[in-house]
Amino acid sequence: MDKRTNIIAGAERIFENQGFRGIGVDGILAPSGTSTRTLYKHFGSREGLVLAVVAERHRSFMERLRDWPEAHDPIGSLFDVLESWLSEHGARGCMLLRAHSEYAGSHPDIASLVRQQKREFADEIARRVETALGQPNNEIALSIWLLFEGATAAASVTDKPVVQSAKRAALTLLSDR
Q1: Based on the number of CB atoms within 10 Å of its own CB, is 2 exposed (0-12), middle (13-18) or buried (19 or more)?
Q2: Rounded Cα distance, 97 and 115, in Å
Q3: CA distances (Å), 4 to each of 10, 12, 165, in order?
Q4: Which H/E stretch holds residue 23?
Protein backbone atom coordinates (compact mmCIF):
# COMPACT_ATOMS: atom_id res chain seq x y z
CA MET A 1 0.00 0.00 0.00
CA ASP A 2 1.45 3.37 -0.95
CA LYS A 3 1.85 6.16 1.62
CA ARG A 4 -1.14 8.21 0.36
CA THR A 5 -3.47 5.19 0.44
CA ASN A 6 -2.17 4.23 3.88
CA ILE A 7 -2.88 7.72 5.23
CA ILE A 8 -6.41 7.69 3.80
CA ALA A 9 -7.15 4.24 5.24
CA GLY A 10 -5.92 5.20 8.70
CA ALA A 11 -7.73 8.54 8.67
CA GLU A 12 -10.94 6.86 7.53
CA ARG A 13 -10.89 4.57 10.58
CA ILE A 14 -10.20 7.51 12.89
CA PHE A 15 -12.92 9.70 11.34
CA GLU A 16 -15.38 6.80 11.47
CA ASN A 17 -14.80 6.28 15.17
CA GLN A 18 -14.11 9.81 16.43
CA GLY A 19 -15.59 12.24 13.95
CA PHE A 20 -13.79 14.68 11.72
CA ARG A 21 -13.10 17.60 13.99
CA GLY A 22 -12.83 15.91 17.35
CA ILE A 23 -9.25 14.77 16.91
CA GLY A 24 -5.96 16.51 16.21
CA VAL A 25 -3.72 15.96 13.20
CA ASP A 26 -1.31 13.79 15.21
CA GLY A 27 -4.18 11.48 16.17
CA ILE A 28 -5.38 11.30 12.57
CA LEU A 29 -1.90 10.36 11.35
CA ALA A 30 -1.08 7.90 14.16
CA PRO A 31 -2.51 4.78 12.41
CA SER A 32 -0.37 5.42 9.31
CA GLY A 33 2.71 6.45 11.27
CA THR A 34 3.27 9.46 9.05
CA SER A 35 4.28 13.01 9.81
CA THR A 36 2.37 16.24 9.43
CA ARG A 37 4.77 17.16 6.66
CA THR A 38 3.74 14.03 4.74
CA LEU A 39 0.07 14.94 5.23
CA TYR A 40 0.64 18.35 3.66
CA LYS A 41 2.78 16.87 0.89
CA HIS A 42 0.00 14.49 -0.18
CA PHE A 43 -3.15 16.45 0.67
CA GLY A 44 -2.22 20.11 1.11
CA SER A 45 -4.22 20.43 4.34
CA ARG A 46 -6.28 18.56 6.87
CA GLU A 47 -9.37 19.44 4.81
CA GLY A 48 -7.63 18.03 1.74
CA LEU A 49 -7.31 14.76 3.63
CA VAL A 50 -11.00 14.92 4.61
CA LEU A 51 -11.88 15.38 0.92
CA ALA A 52 -9.75 12.37 0.00
CA VAL A 53 -11.30 10.21 2.73
CA VAL A 54 -14.84 11.21 1.75
CA ALA A 55 -14.07 10.55 -1.93
CA GLU A 56 -12.57 7.15 -1.11
CA ARG A 57 -15.47 6.19 1.16
CA HIS A 58 -18.00 6.97 -1.56
CA ARG A 59 -15.94 5.23 -4.24
CA SER A 60 -15.63 2.14 -2.08
CA PHE A 61 -19.37 2.00 -1.33
CA MET A 62 -20.38 2.56 -4.96
CA GLU A 63 -17.93 -0.14 -6.05
CA ARG A 64 -19.49 -2.59 -3.61
CA LEU A 65 -22.91 -1.64 -4.94
CA ARG A 66 -21.79 -2.25 -8.53
CA ASP A 67 -20.18 -5.59 -7.62
CA TRP A 68 -23.20 -6.91 -5.71
CA PRO A 69 -25.54 -9.06 -7.83
CA GLU A 70 -28.71 -7.09 -8.51
CA ALA A 71 -30.26 -8.92 -11.48
CA HIS A 72 -33.08 -10.60 -9.56
CA ASP A 73 -33.72 -7.77 -7.10
CA PRO A 74 -32.26 -4.36 -7.99
CA ILE A 75 -33.93 -2.60 -5.03
CA GLY A 76 -33.66 -5.28 -2.37
CA SER A 77 -29.97 -5.67 -3.16
CA LEU A 78 -29.41 -2.01 -2.17
CA PHE A 79 -30.40 -2.90 1.37
CA ASP A 80 -28.42 -6.15 1.30
CA VAL A 81 -25.33 -4.10 0.44
CA LEU A 82 -26.13 -1.69 3.26
CA GLU A 83 -26.46 -4.54 5.73
CA SER A 84 -23.13 -6.00 4.59
CA TRP A 85 -21.49 -2.55 4.75
CA LEU A 86 -22.76 -1.94 8.28
CA SER A 87 -21.48 -5.35 9.38
CA GLU A 88 -18.04 -4.44 8.11
CA HIS A 89 -17.85 -0.74 9.05
CA GLY A 90 -20.24 -0.54 11.99
CA ALA A 91 -23.55 1.22 12.31
CA ARG A 92 -22.58 4.82 13.04
CA GLY A 93 -24.67 6.65 10.48
CA CYS A 94 -23.42 7.93 7.16
CA MET A 95 -19.83 9.17 7.25
CA LEU A 96 -20.54 11.45 4.29
CA LEU A 97 -23.42 13.18 6.04
CA ARG A 98 -21.30 13.56 9.17
CA ALA A 99 -18.60 15.23 7.09
CA HIS A 100 -21.21 17.52 5.56
CA SER A 101 -22.58 18.38 8.98
CA GLU A 102 -19.18 19.14 10.47
CA TYR A 103 -17.83 21.14 7.52
CA ALA A 104 -20.82 22.69 5.70
CA GLY A 105 -20.33 26.11 7.27
CA SER A 106 -16.56 26.24 7.08
CA HIS A 107 -15.43 24.26 4.05
CA PRO A 108 -17.77 24.46 1.06
CA ASP A 109 -15.65 22.06 -1.02
CA ILE A 110 -16.38 19.22 1.40
CA ALA A 111 -20.10 20.03 1.50
CA SER A 112 -20.20 20.26 -2.29
CA LEU A 113 -18.47 16.90 -2.70
CA VAL A 114 -20.93 15.21 -0.35
CA ARG A 115 -23.90 16.72 -2.20
CA GLN A 116 -22.44 15.49 -5.49
CA GLN A 117 -21.95 12.00 -4.06
CA LYS A 118 -25.49 11.88 -2.68
CA ARG A 119 -26.84 12.91 -6.11
CA GLU A 120 -24.80 10.12 -7.70
CA PHE A 121 -26.24 7.63 -5.24
CA ALA A 122 -29.79 8.92 -5.82
CA ASP A 123 -29.21 8.52 -9.57
CA GLU A 124 -28.15 4.91 -8.97
CA ILE A 125 -31.37 4.28 -7.06
CA ALA A 126 -33.39 5.89 -9.87
CA ARG A 127 -31.64 3.61 -12.38
CA ARG A 128 -32.51 0.58 -10.27
CA VAL A 129 -36.13 1.68 -9.90
CA GLU A 130 -36.36 2.01 -13.68
CA THR A 131 -34.88 -1.49 -14.04
CA ALA A 132 -37.36 -2.92 -11.53
CA LEU A 133 -40.44 -1.17 -12.95
CA GLY A 134 -39.48 -1.00 -16.60
CA GLN A 135 -39.90 2.76 -16.54
CA PRO A 136 -38.64 5.71 -14.51
CA ASN A 137 -40.50 6.74 -11.38
CA ASN A 138 -38.88 9.67 -9.59
CA GLU A 139 -41.30 9.60 -6.66
CA ILE A 140 -40.55 5.97 -5.83
CA ALA A 141 -36.82 6.54 -6.35
CA LEU A 142 -36.90 9.44 -3.90
CA SER A 143 -38.89 7.40 -1.37
CA ILE A 144 -36.42 4.51 -1.61
CA TRP A 145 -33.51 6.92 -1.23
CA LEU A 146 -35.15 8.29 1.92
CA LEU A 147 -35.71 4.77 3.26
CA PHE A 148 -32.07 3.89 2.60
CA GLU A 149 -30.68 7.05 4.21
CA GLY A 150 -33.11 6.69 7.11
CA ALA A 151 -32.12 3.05 7.67
CA THR A 152 -28.46 4.05 7.65
CA ALA A 153 -29.10 6.65 10.33
CA ALA A 154 -31.53 4.54 12.36
CA ALA A 155 -29.16 1.55 12.45
CA SER A 156 -26.79 3.67 14.52
CA VAL A 157 -29.31 3.72 17.37
CA THR A 158 -31.41 0.60 16.76
CA ASP A 159 -28.83 -1.69 15.12
CA LYS A 160 -28.98 -3.45 11.78
CA PRO A 161 -32.44 -5.13 11.82
CA VAL A 162 -33.93 -1.77 10.81
CA VAL A 163 -32.32 -2.26 7.38
CA GLN A 164 -34.55 -5.26 6.67
CA SER A 165 -37.62 -3.23 7.66
CA ALA A 166 -36.57 -0.49 5.22
CA LYS A 167 -36.01 -3.13 2.54
CA ARG A 168 -39.52 -4.50 3.02
CA ALA A 169 -40.97 -0.98 2.83
CA ALA A 170 -39.03 -0.28 -0.38
CA LEU A 171 -40.22 -3.51 -1.97
CA THR A 172 -43.80 -2.68 -0.95
CA LEU A 173 -43.48 0.63 -2.79
CA LEU A 174 -42.52 -1.27 -5.93
CA SER A 175 -45.24 -3.88 -5.60
CA ASP A 176 -47.90 -1.18 -5.28
CA ARG A 177 -47.10 -0.02 -8.84
Answers
A1: exposed
A2: 9
A3: 10, 12, 39
A4: none
